[in-house]
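Branched-chain-amino-acid aminotransferase
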Amino acid sequence: MARESTGVIWMNGTFVPYEDAKIHVLSHVVHYGSSVFEGIRAYATPSGTAVFRLDRHVQRMLDSCKIARIACPYGYAELMEAIRETVRKNGCAPCYIRPVVYRGFKTLGVNPTGVPIDVAIATLNWGKYLGKDALDHGISVRVASWNRQAPNTFPAMAKTGANYLNSQLIKLEAVADGYEEGIALDVFGYVAEGSGENIFLVRGDTLYTPTVASAILPGVTRDCVITLARHLELEVREEQIPREMLYISDELFFTGTAAEITPITQVDRIPIGTGAVGPVTRKLQKAFFDIIEGRARDAHRWLFPVEATGKVQRAAKKAR
Ligand SMILES: Cc1ncc(COP(=O)(O)O)c(C=O)c1O
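Predicted structure tokens:
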């Protein structure tokens, strides 16, 4: 397998060479999926390397810990700085950042009481998640035979390792059947999300996306797209979406840190709209990439420079 990770990995406050970043096979997380994690991107902008929406990602990781009852040994400010330091040290941009909080090695019982909680941060050389052409030409997806989790089973709002068996099944099924990705419905039959992406529909002048009650992860990119769409004076509606709305939408796209804004041009082999990438998707892609690649003013303060001075840090904090 190609070496995906770069440089050093931050483990419990110490930088460890890539080859030495190991855990014990009897760690609780290996058996029970007891972890929470984030997926974050750093971009190369004209004013240096910047981490995209670092504040939101760190906050969501701490929220996930709270839901999963994992007492993270590091706080918000420490995680913010550790992530920036890892990117700085590895000198990588653009790159993907993977912080993970996990139950480590002590006893193998399901009850995690007394099991240590460890934290690691790695950077990876990930390119375009859904393929090189996906952003320009769109992808073909199927509606998954697997639903997202029922309410009060697995916590969909938490980005926990255990939830991702569901994502793996959705993705494996889609790829085995010749599609790039799957769209899962919730247990009531309403549209939820992709295996690792939120979804948006365009119909007329309105943008629709499922509510957080439809078993979705509240995506950071989803939040960006809602903000950008409102600035473009589009009506945005978060509501329950029946499956058939997918087929009659004018445009459809996925959002996610890995997927960014990826157009969907076919669902279950049915062309969406004209079957080509639509104008609203293109407008939102442009607004998004102009900010993250530093061509437009960062009006929403979404970029966190890794080399930030105290002054910049204080300004970013104040804006929150
Ligand atoms: C299941 C799931 N839904 C949605 C998303 C999109 O979230 P974000 O935009 O924060 O990356 C992700 C990716 O993290 C995901 O894994």
